[in-house]
Amino acid sequence: MRIILLGPPGAGKGTQAKLLVERLAVPQISTGDMLRAAVKDGGPLGGQAKAYMDRGALVPDEVIIGLVRERLQAADCARGYILDGFPRTVAQAEALEKTLGELRLNLDHVLYLDVPVEELVERIAGRRTCRRCGAMSHVRFSPTRRDGVCDVCGGETYQRDDDGEDTVRRRLAVYTEQTAPLVRFYEGRGVLRRIVGTGEIGEIFARMVQSLGG
Ligand code: AMP
Prior knowledge:
Elements: E1 2-6, H1 13-24, E2 28-30, H2 31-41, H3 44-54, H4 61-72, E3 81-84, H5 90-102, E4 109-114, H6 117-125, E5 127-130, E6 136-138, E7 157-158, H7 165-179, H8 181-188, E8 192-196, H9 201-211
Parallel strand pairs: 1-3, 1-4, 2-3, 4-8
Antiparallel strand pairs: 5-6, 5-7
Helix pairs in contact: 1-9, 2-3, 4-5, 6-7
The protein binds adenosine monophosphate.
């Protein structure tokens, strides 16, 4: 099954993608995670991407498109995948459509996680990620048992560099300008499903599963 998770920063795409991975046994492809890994590696891609990420801007389309195209050819993508954070512009959506068309494949669903803007800033400001295993937590909504220590693996949790309030506001503006038009784009393709993205994580997941047809 090939699925896109669409929605603003902080809508819960990463959290829900991880739950879908367990349910559907297909990989999560998060361009944000791929870029953060590249920054950590210290290679040329990371060096190029970091400046954009730090100011809350999008990394250029051609860089991202090349990265995703290569990733989709990996063996673990044969049965499908969950795209999280890609596409983020109409140009990226068109490139994905072209790649899938060449392979005679279709997208199955685009799930749009709908969360009011006021809630996004609060969610992002409190979110923490484990440096070691990538598990997510939230200082208010789903705190770890010990402050700063991951419940899953005991690793150190941290706040993403681009989750500070000013950068978040810029990322939300970039979303409205460049990514929100994808809602119309995929509505036009007849594959968009709107999911109410507020409430408990499990409740939102149940809505997602239901809209995938159980
Ligand atoms: P995310 O983890 O999805 O919130 O992404 C973090 C940052 O990585 C974004 O603010 C962008 O700078 C960059 N990024 C991730 N995915 C993309 C994409 N599909 N296109 C352009 N930039 C991206």
